[in-house]
Amino acid sequence: MHDILPEHAERWRALESLIHDFAGRFGYGEIRTPLVEHTDVFQRTIGEATDLVEKEMYTFTDRGGRSLSLRPEGTAGVMRAYLEHGMASWPQPVRLYYIAPMFRYDRPQKGRYRMHHQFGAEIIGSPSPAADVEVLSLPIRLIQALGLTEVSVRLNSVGDATCRPAYVEALRTYFTTHVDRLCDDCRRRLAVNPLRILECREPECHAVAMGAPPSRDYLCGPCREHLEGVKTLFSAVGIPYVEDPMIVRGLDYYTRTAVEIFSGRLGGAQNAVLGGGRYDGLAEQLGGPSTPGVGFGQGIERLLLVLEAEGLRVPRSVGQHDGVAVFVASVGSAAGVEAFKLLDQLRRAGIRSVGEMQGRSLRAQMKQADKLGVRYAVILGEQELAARQAGVRDMRNGTQDAVALDQVLPTLSARTTEDR
């Protein structure tokens, strides 16, 4: 664990301020969960047989005889809070973010201490690929705004409860034929969860893993369709990615999408600055109803190291503004892609915006926009796309204008600037 001295604290404050601003642009609300949780929260969700639970958690018994643990990661606690506080009754999906310390009794590495800090965000309540790309584009756009260039986005799908068992068995069969080349930890993982062998950094284990069957060959139809949707939307907003079968994420709650972002300026196993993915079974593991979710965790120490390596300063935040300003409504798949592109443009311009990802009717979307208290709604459907226009509605007085698609951004930029 380390101290952050005054000479460095200013950089931390500037980065945290920028994070708050970017999260606000995307319509996320800040959540602050306790440093400690009941140990069961992590055992049930992360997996009792994981290294994190078995070796790395700071666990103790309090005076009441309860087993408690310092949080090793943020998602499980956020989902616990979502269930405990009845957030399922809020307008869905729920967008939450946090900046918080995490604790792991791990071997200290460059930029990763036993107490380290994460910027994380979650979208809970949407199974759509749009949720995956939206939550992951948040840190990606932050990284780009900071001026980082040597960044690689690596994407994979680990399937779900329907198709992953067959993949796990295929991995077990493959690694069994090479068991004499595996380290002691990976021999144990072979019996418990061979997926984790793919993440081992031991040179011999990594060499064996490179020949393992890829998960994409075992995906069921819905998982394959979901992955294609994620790829389509990444391409729509111009975020380059590489499909990498070695990205599986190490926690039991992950399903389908798995992503890691790497910086070329950090060497070896320490070059990952962000990891995330989908966790549709997490709520059920905590005793709640089936609830889809997707999120990420980004190490702040690692990010500051990369900025230092590239000689970059953290810019001052443009400041925060209360409330979401724009809701982008869409009807139809083609309009959905166009709406997703527009959302990305609005957010990059500093306009706090959210959009539809539940497949609801236009009437239901307008009700959602009203509940969120937005000032403007953008409406995109087949007729609007055919005319290369969008409806821009002032939610305060109900007036609506037809605006050319290439003029929606400047129109809303001008109007929201006047509103401030």
Brief account:
The protein has helices at 6-25, 39-45, 51-56, 75-84, 129-145, 164-176, 184-192, 203-209, 221-236, 282-285, 300-309, 333-348, 362-372, 382-386, 405-419; strands at 29-30, 36-38, 59-61, 67-70, 94-103, 115-124, 151-157, 242-243, 255-263, 272-278, 293-299, 326-330, 353-355, 376-380, 389-394, 400-404.
List keywords for this structure.
single chain; 420 residues; Rossmann fold; 3 domains; 8-stranded mixed sheet; 5-stranded mixed sheet; 16 strands; 21% strand
Computed over alpha carbons, the radius of gyration is 22 Å
CATH topology of the largest domain: BirA Bifunctional Protein, domain 2
Largest sheet: 8 strands, mixed
Secondary-structure content class: alpha+beta
**Uncertain runs with pLDDT below 50, 5 residues or more?**
none
Q: Which CATH class of the largest domain?
A: Alpha Beta
Percent of residues in helices? 25-40%
Strand content: 15-25%
**DSSP helix count?**
15
Shape-level CATH architecture of the largest domain: 2-Layer Sandwich
What is the first-to-last residue Cα distance?
42 Å
On the 0 to 100 scale, the average pLDDT is 90
Tell me the number of strands: 16
Looking at this structure, what is the CATH superfamily of the largest domain? Bira Bifunctional Protein, Domain 2
Report the principal-axis shape.
Answer: globular
Tell me the count of domains. 3
Q: If strands are numbered along the chain, what order do they take across the biggest sheet?
A: 1-5-6-11-10-9-7-8
